[in-house]
Amino acid sequence: MQTASPREPKRLLRLDGFRRRAATLVELLVTFGVIGMLTGLLLPAVQMARESGRRMQCEHHLHQIGLGLMNYHDHHRKLPPGCLEWRPFRGPAHRKNFAWSSFLLPFIDQPSLHQSIRFDLPFDHPANRPARLTNLAIYRCPSVPAKPKDEGFSDYGGLYGQRISTRTATDNGCLVYDQAFDFADLSDGLNDTMMVSEDSEGPDSQWINGSNVFEQSGGVNDPRAWRGDNEIRSRHPGGAVAVFGSANVRFLSNSVSRDVLAAWITRAGGEVVEAP
């Protein structure tokens, strides 16, 4: 009778050949360096893509504003005044000072807001406070950071005129104080007459406030322009967006000729403009 052999002890696998090799400090530094380099290459591209999307949205807003102006003209046979009962600085408080952009509300899908405004009272009367503090996306550029207490803010201003090539009559634009023009008055042509442009960071920048029209004195995003004045300014790299009489939107380069810019702003200057 064969006796059972004692159980053999389990063999232990030798793991010497399978040990994980720890990464050296040099290898870690190289890895982090590659990751940092890739991040540095990709981040500007991502930021550029985001800005491109924001600029497209800004252009869409101004196109809708341009269509609103055309529909307003079709309905009233005139454009809205740039400002109704303009009130100068420290002027009489009873002056209403309503902006073109407040009259445009029924034509940009805001009829209820338009009906809530007491146009028989000044824009800053307490009865108009709820409307005055209402934010409207169509009047905001997505590239401009939101600020605290900027209710009713607008990043777009109406073109009162230009004093680039003239110093005498600067109310040579389309949206001026207490006047309403029809398309026949725009003898330079709708396609070459600017109506509204970006005016980010302007001092008078509420969509209901009639001081939200301005005369252009320099180039686009001109660093020499006084910061306390309304001018064509934007947060887009390289230029600003504007809409013309036929609702066509253009991106105005910072390098656009001042003479061309002045000619685009006037409604009846008779200039011959070759678009860059």
Structural account:
With 276 residues, the protein is of the alpha+beta class. It has one domain (42-265). It contains 5 helices and 7 strands; from the N terminus they run αββαααβββββα. The strands form 2 sheets. The protein has a 5-stranded mixed sheet with strand order 5-3-4-6-7. The chain has a two-stranded antiparallel sheet with strand order 1-2. Strand 6 (239-244) and strand 7 form a beta hairpin. It is globular.
| Unreliable runs | none
Radius of gyration: 30 Å
Largest beta sheet: what is the strand line-up? Answer: 5-3-4-6-7
State the order of secondary-structure elements, H for helix, E for strand: HEEHHHEEEEEH
> Count the helices. How many?
5
Distance between the termini: 110 Å
Beta fraction of the residues? 5-15%
Give the fraction of residues assigned to helices. 25-40%
Strand count, sense and barrel status of the largest sheet are: 5 strands, mixed
* Quaternary structure: single chain
**What's the total number of strands?**
7
Count of structural domains: 1
Summed over residues and divided by their number, the pLDDT gives a mean of: 87
Structural class: alpha+beta
The global form is globular
Layout of strands and helices, then pairs:
Elements: H1 25-76, E1 83-84, E2 98-99, H2 100-103, H3 111-116, H4 129-132, E3 156-162, E4 194-198, E5 213-216, E6 239-244, E7 249-253, H5 258-265
Keywords summarizing the entry:
276 residues, 5-stranded mixed beta sheet, alpha+beta, two-stranded antiparallel ribbon
Short précis:
This protein is α+β, with helices and mostly antiparallel strands. It has helices spanning 25-76, 100-103, 111-116, 129-132, 258-265; strands spanning 83-84, 98-99, 156-162, 194-198, 213-216, 239-244, 249-253.
